[in-house]
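Attaching the record inline, Q. Sequence:
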Amino acid sequence: MQLPLNRKVLILSFLAAAFLTFLGAPFHKGRFYIHGEDSSSGNLEVVLEKLEQAEQLLSGIFNYLPQENFDIIILDGVWEMEAAFGLGPWIGAFYKDFKSYLQPIETLMKREMLERIVFIEYAHYFFDSYTNSTCPAWFNELCSVYFCTLYVDAVIPLRCEHKFVNFQEFSNLGRNMKDRKLLDAFYFYAFHFARFLLAQYKTNPFSDLINAVHEGAALDESVRKTTGKSLQVIFEEEFLPWLASK
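Structure, as predicted:
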């Protein structure tokens, strides 16, 4: 899960170096550093294996290998996510600036979420590196979840209880993350919005658009060049009526 930049995240990012120092020497391999859990449990090897699998998949698709270190910090308990970031305990992980904060590994395993969460967090890291951190948070989340659904595990709810009425509501990831109904709705709409773009415009949001951002173009500018319309117009005037008809 990726959160847009805000004051609280800036403060947390400022403190991150001190926090990692406090945790002591990490368990690591290559660019992957895992902090906060005893390596004798064997769980960290599982996390590393899942990270390497995610990297092999995405680097193969995009012909790109990130060079930045990726820190994964394992939280002590499920409620620490709320205490540290103001996010509900249903959030499996939080990503910012090449660092991911995960719920306890045992908790994710019991909820059968570990592989899914590790893949999505790696994907956030991958797309941040690939686009030099210029990809909008909501689109990074959309891409990460879409690939996870295709190759790892379904993330998308079959239905959602909330309806977005405009693009601004949908793309406000910071707000949507803090309410479980809104977050479920975001995943539902994001997955189907990707399907809509593929079907209606023959545009692959994960090659054409993300590659354009990789090359320095703004996302909306890339969409306009490809479709002749803005993301907002496509979402509100075409996609929402299409989704309502299904």
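Residues 43 and 160 are 33 Å apart (CA to CA). Residues 5-11, 13-23 have pLDDT under 50 and may be disordered.

More tomorrow.
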